[in-house]
Amino acid sequence: MSVLSIKPLVQPRDDGLQLSYQLPHRIYCAKAYPVLSPNGSSIIIYGSENGLKVIWRGGSEPVPTERRMKDKLDGTGNDDAIMIVDSDEEVTPELSKDEYSKVQLENRTSGIDISHPFDDIIRYVDIPLGGKVLDLAVPHCVPDRTRSSFGISPPVLSQMIVISAICADFSTRVVALPLAPPQGMDTAASAQGIQTLSISGSVSHQEIPRGVTMTFTFRRDEEGQSTNRAQVQGAPAKDESSGSQAEGRWDLLVATHSAEASGTLLVYRIPIIQQSSQIETSYFLLKSHIHPIQKHYLPAPARSISFSPSPYPSARHSNLLVSFSSGYVKVYSCLAPKPSKVSRSQQGSSGDTDTAEPQGRWLITLYPSFEQSSTEVACRKTVVDAKWVLGGRAVIVLLADGEWGVWDIEGAGPGSEGPLHHQSSVHGVTGGSLTRFAVSGRVVGMPQAKSSQTADSIMPERARFVPLTPSTKRIREDTLFKGSHSFSQPSVCGEISVIQTNSLRDAAPEESILLRHGNQSVIIPSLLSLWRNAVKVTGTFDALNRCRMSSLGNLVIPGETMNGIDHLPVAPRRKREIGYREFDILITTEHRLIILAPRLSEPKQEQPDSIMAQQITKGPSGETDQLMLMKGELDVDGVDRVLSEMASPYRPRNTVRDPSRRGRIFS
Fold it and tell me: Is the model's pLDDT at 188 over the cut of 70?
C-alpha cells in the first residue's frame, strides 16, 4: 500500500489537530530530518521491516512550467527549437539538482480548504536494506531558519539527506539521497540516485548495535593545519564549493555502541568527496578503507549516545555524550589531540598524516541523585536518556522515576556557575564529576479518561469500610495535604528531543524540550525561560505559557504503545495561526505516525483604522502589565491596574505569585 494513499485520521485538539497515519507495517524507529527540502517540505524518516522510508510532507510540488522547459531545450544551442505539446506521452526533461532549487513552485491549491486544514504527504521513497531497521540517526544541526550565515556548515546539507541506520544483520548503513523530493511518482530507490554504505564484518560489532549517532567534522590539509582556530571562527562564510575543497574536506563522524563484551563503543570517520562540474556539484561517500578510528570498551553497556549540536569549528563539536543505565553520564571527546612523544622532525617524516587519528579522551562524569530505598545499599537513580542543551554547554537528563534535570557544565545558564564557568569549553577538565542540577522538574502523569462502564464493573468500586491503621492513616493524610497529583509511574522507557528555536547569533540559545516517559509526554516551550524563573529571587513570576512545562494530554493512541517523539521542523508559514509554535510534533507508535500540528488558516486581512483605534483605546492587558512590571517600566496607572486585579474576587488564580514561596521543582 502506498503511503500517499493513506488518509490520516484527523482529530481536533485544544492546540490544533492530531493527524494519525495507520501504516500496514510496523515502525521500529522514526526521526524528523532537521533540514527542510528546497520546496519547503518537512522530511520524516522511519525504519520498517524491509528498510527505510523517507517521506516529504507539506511544501509545494515542483511543477516546471512550459516556459522553463522551453528554455532548457533552447540551452542546447538550437535557438530555433520548437516544443510541440500535443501528445499524451510527452516526456518532461529532467532538471539538475542546482536547477531544481530554482524551479518555479506552485501550490496544490490557491487557498486553504476548511475541511482539510493541514499539510499532506506529497512524496515518499522506499530504501530497501534487506532487513529490519532497528534504530537510526540524523545529523545534529540546528534548523534552517535558526542557522547563522556567518557559520561554517557542510555544503552537503544543502543537497543531500544523510542517515545512519542500524540493521538486524549486525551492520550499520549510511544512506545518502537527494534532499529535494522526487519529481515523479516513482518511489524506487534505483531511480533516485541513492548511495548506501555498509559497515559490517570485522570492522563492526559482533552483535546488534544498540544505538547510533552522527555529526559532521572537517579535516584540514597540511597547508591549513597551522591556521588559527579563532581566525576560522571569526571569518565570514566563504563559498563552500571552492574554499572548503581547497583547504580540506568534510567528514562524517559516526559512533555506534553495543553490549558486546562489557560494552563497546566504535567511532568511524567517513570522507565526503565533492565533485564539481559546469552543471552541478555532487557529493559521494567514500566506501573504501572503512574502519573504526577508535574502539573503546565501556564499563557497562551504554543506554544512549549523542553528539554535541555545536557546529565546527567549535572545539566541542565532536563531544560525545554517553549515558549508562546504572546511574551516570560521561562526556567523551572523539577528536581530542593524541599526546605525542616524538619530535617534529620524526612526525614530519612519518608519512601520511591522515593515518594519525586522534585517540580521544574522557572528560567529565555526571551523576544524578540517589534513590530513596529502604535497603542499606544506596544506588543512584536509573538514567533513561540524556541530551545536550544550550548548544553543547549543558546536559539534560531524564530519570526512571520521572525526574528531569540539567547539569550546567560550563555555567552557561542564567544565574549558574558550573565547574567550568571561567573556561571556554569542557576540554580543560579530565576526570572531573558533577552531581548538582541547576534546574530540575518532574513529569506529571495525566489522569486517564474513564471509559464506559457496565453495571458489573461499577459494583466493585462502591465505597467500603477501611479500618484505620497507621498505613491507611498516612495515605489519607498525604491525600489531604498534598493533593491528588499523580506522578508518572517509574519507567525505563523514555526519550528526550531538543530543538533550537532562535538564531545562532543570539547570546543564549532558546530551546524547546520534549520529554517522553512511559506513556506520558510533556513539552517545555523554552528551557531558558523556565530556567530564568527558577533562579529569579526578585520581581514577579512570569506566567507566560513558554515558561511552564505542559503535558501533551488527550492523545488518542488506541491499543498501542508510544515508542518515539521528536520535533518536526516546518517552513515559516503566514497561514499558521498566530501564537502557535514554529514546529510540529512527531509521535510514533507500533503502526502509526502521529503528527500534532496547528490548523492552517487563511491570512487575516488588515483591520481598518477605526477598529485599530478601538483596540488601542482598550489599553494593555494584564499580561502586558506583568511584563512591564518585571522590566521596571510600568507607570502609575499600570500599578493601579495590577493592584485592582489582585483585589478583585474574580481575577484568575495564580496570576501573581510570591517568588519567595516558589520552589525550584516544576511539575
Answer: no
H/E run at residue 73: helix 66-74
Does some domain include residue 617?
no
Cell numbers for 368: 544524578
Same domain, 154 and 249: yes
Longest dimension (CA), the chain: 100
What is the number of domains present in the chain? 2
Residue 657: Cβ within 10 Å count: 13
Please tell me whether residues 299 and 367 are part of one structural domain: yes
Containing structural domain, residue 439: 3-63+113-226+241-340+357-446+488-597
Is residue 533 situated within a structural domain?
yes
C-alpha cell at 565: 517523539
Q: Answer yes or no: pTM beyond 0.85.
A: no
pLDDT for 593-605, tens place per residue? Answer: 999 999 887 555 5
Q: What is the DSSP string of 194-225?
A: -EEEEE-GGGS-SS---EEEEEEEEEE-TTTT
User: What pLDDT, on a 0 to 100 scale, did the predictor assign at position 15?
Assistant: 84
| Same domain membership, residue 633 and residue 588 | no
- Residues across the chain: 667
CATH value at residue 502: 2.130.10.10
Tell me if 521 sits within 8 A of 551, measured CB to CB.
yes
In a domain, 94, yes or no: no
> Which CA distances in Å does 352 have to 181, 221, 344, 347, 356?
40, 11, 14, 10, 8
What's the pLDDT at 667? Answer: 42
DSSP conformation letters of 379-444: -BPPEEEEEEEGGGTEEEEEETTSEEEEEESSS-STT---TTTTSSSGGG-SSEEE---SEEEEPB
pLDDT band at 580 (very low <50, low <70, confident <90, very high): low
Evaluate if residue 63 carries a pLDDT over 70.
no
Together in a domain, 565 and 659 = no
Q: What is the mean pLDDT of the chain?
A: 75
- The gap from C-alpha 120 to its chain's centroid, in whole angstroms, comes to 22
Any domain includes 307: yes
Query: Residue 426 has what pLDDT?
Result: 57
Cα–Cα dist 74/80, whole Å? 8
Q: Which sign does the torsion angle of CA 257, 260, 264, 265 carry? A: negative
3-state per-residue secondary structure call for 318-340: CEEEEEECCCEEEEEECCCCCCC
